[in-house]
Each structure stands twice: as C-alpha cells, then as structure tokens.
Amino acid sequence: MPTISTTLVLSPLPAIEALGQRAAAMGAEVRRDGDQIEVQGAASRVRAGARGDNLSLELIADTDEDLLKIRGLIEAFVTAHGITDIDWKGAKPRKSRLTMARALSCTRISPSFCRVRLAGDFSAFRDGGLHFRLLIAPDGALLPEPGADGDLVWPGGIDAWHRPPYTIRAMSAEADWMDFDIFLHAGGRVTEWTEDLRPGDPVALTGPGGKGIRPARWLGLAGDETALPVILRAIEAADPETQGHASILIAESADIQPVTAPPGLRLEWVLRSEGRSLLDLFRALPTPPETDRFMFFAGERQDAAVAREHAKSLGMTAGEYHCAAYWTEGWTPPLSQKQARR
After folding, report:
1. Is there a contact between 301 and 328 (Cβ–Cβ < 8 Å)?
2. Three-state SS sequence of 149-184
3. Are 104 and 170 in contact (CB under 8 A)?
4. Which residue among 89, 191, 296, 311 is least crowded, i.e. fewest CB within 10 A of its CB?
5. Between the CA atoms of 230, 95, 60 and 300, what dihedral angle is there, to the nearest 10 degrees?
6. What pLDDT, in 10s, does the model give residues 75-99?
7. In this structure, what DSSP letter does residue 125 have?
8. Taking 80 as the threshold, does the pLDDT of residue 209 lie above it?
9. For residue 202, how many C-alpha atoms fall within 13 Å in the half-sphere facing its CB?
10. Which residues contact 318 (CB under 8 A, 6 or more apart)?
C-alpha cells in the first residue's frame, strides 16, 4: 500500500485532538491511545502521534489516488495550523490520472436507475480498477490540467468541483468502453447531468481508486441503492465456493437487476415499504465464521458509523469489514459547485 510520513514542528497534543474531532465530523473511525491517534477512512488511514515536542504523521492508502486525496486533506489541516512546508518521506504517489471519454448512451434501465456507457481508453481500470470519480465542473470552468509538479490543477479550486465516486458495472475486454449505473433521485446533481447528457458529449473522470469488497470465503453485505453496483459486481466476481448473505434495500421491485450469485451466497432484495432499515438488514446478517470472512455496509454517513460499531461488536478486525458512507442526510452542495443547466 502507498505510504508516506513526516514530522512537523507542531504542538502534538492539541493537533491530535483537533485532527480527531475533524475526522470524526467527516465520518471517519477514530481510535485514540494516549498521545497516539489512528483515523480509518474509506480507503486510507492516518496515524498521528507525539515525537517529543513534534507531531508525527503517517499516511497509508489503498491506491495512489487515495493517498493523494488524504494527503491533500492533511495538508489543508496543518496549513490551518500554520504549517506550509511539509517534507514527506516515502514513495511519492503517482499523480491523479485524468481520463477523457465520450458518452455513447444513457439508458433508463429501471424506475430508479440509468446506465451510462462511455467510450474511451479505460486500460488503467482493467487490472482491478473498481471505482472512479465523475467530474462535473462549476459553471464556466475549464478541465483540470497537470501543474508543474504533475498534480492536477483545478480551475476554481478542487472543492468547486462535484466529483462523486461511481463503480464500473461492466467493461469491454479491450477496455474501450465501460458502463456505470446512476441512482436517480430528485435534486441530485448527477441526476440533472443525465438529463442533459447526449451521445458524443465529452465526459471527464479520474481514477481508479477507492476501496471495494475484499474477496473471502464468507461475505456479509448490506447496502442501499447507492451501493447496488458495487455489491452486484462483487457477487458476480465472487468465487463459486463463496458462502454468505447479501441484502440490498430498494424502492420498488422493478429496480431488481438480474445477477448470478454463487450457490452458497443468498441475495435478498428488500423493499423500503417493508419497513426494515438498512441497519436492520446489516444486523440481521448471519453470524460470520471465525476465519476468511468479510462484512460490507454502504449507505448514509451516520448509519455507517453505527454499522462499524456493530461489526466490531462481532469481533471483526479492521481488515475484515468496511462500512462506507455513500451519502449524507441533509447535505446540499456548496454554491461553488453549482452549474447552470444547458
């Protein structure tokens, strides 16, 4: 895993406390042990501690893109505390990769989903690439370009861009086209984007990146519509001997997608009208075996935090579960991300 570290001339204990509070507010899992802290995010980990009167930091991520992302967050954090010159040790991550594609089609496949097919060179995603970020520019902005150090320079600042993560649903053997599914909902930025999308339109994305579902002999999976693509892809890629249970919460039966699951893995489609919450479904998963197991939860941010505690209560270790926040209740995009409709 890509790893970098540094030591900063910064009073450690106040910085550790502030870092923990900031990370918890963003939905990360925070573990404190004296003058040490570990922050576990969706695809990265930060270890911070006191080294004499200085602050020691170690950043670990699943991919180079994830490392770049967490490095940017940490650099913004320490800059706010007066540190502007950071000497990172370790292998430098490869720079974010911008991929340009064009739309081939945008098809409504069920009441709540549409499937977008893109044409382009997706060879970077062929070897295990699972997730990417779709780039929706603020009004009037040009595409990001590599800067002097190779990092992408974002017109208007990166926070002005809407960059939602998506899962590749299918890709050609030649990696010259790929599909991804979009959950449609009122007021959604990407929902509006699909309404304007036409064949031939340029589409920009970055990746690959993100943490997926680790293969294991036993899988326990629970997610809502936002997690449907990643759960179905994991089921399709699972070894035929895989055991377990997967529950997907959907609005209506017409949103059910055909999928071939291993004989020992039960897939349950649950309608919201039945009254069961996603946390109910996660808690109802069968008791996992003691070895070669993996649990996955993806849904609302606060629910993901509760799901993490449940996984730990079952004796699951950090590498045996992943509880991801795919959306946040009540969140609205900042004005800087607004884009005029065509």
Report:
1. yes
2. CCCEECCCCHHHCECCEEEEEEECCCCCEEEEEEEC
3. no
4. 89
5. -30
6. 878 877 778 678 889 876 666 688 9
7. G
8. no
9. 9
10. 40
Amino acid at position 132, single letter: F
Nearest CA among 26, 23, 25, 27 for reference residue 37:
23
The one-letter code for the residue type at 264 is: G
Classify burial at 177, counting beta carbons within 10 Å of its beta carbon; exposed 0-12, middle 13-18, buried 19 or more: middle
Distance, C-alpha 90 to centroid of its chain:
24
> CB–CB of 104/49 below 8 Å?
no
Chain-wide mean pLDDT for the chain?
Answer: 88
Q: What is the DSSP string of 222-288?
A: EE-GGGHHHHHHHHHHS-TT-EEEEEEEES-GGG-------TTEEEEEEEGGG---HHHHHHTSPPP
Element at 216 (helix H, strand E): none
**CA distances, 156 to each of 15, 66, 94, 140, 159 (Å):** 29, 22, 23, 10, 8
In whole angstroms, give the CA distance from residue 133 to residue 164. Answer: 5
pLDDT tens, residue by residue, 251-309 = 999 999 999 999 999 999 999 999 999 999 999 999 999 999 999 999 998 999 899 99
Work out the burial of residue 331: count CB atoms within 10 Å of its CB; fewer than 13 is exposed, 13-18 middle, 19 or more buried: exposed
Lookup: tokens for 316: 């699951």
- Do 43 and 131 form a contact (C-beta atoms < 8 A)? no
Cis check for the bond before 208: say yes or no (omega within 30 of 0): yes
Query: pLDDT tens, 295-306?
Result: 999 999 899 989
Residues counted in the chain: 342
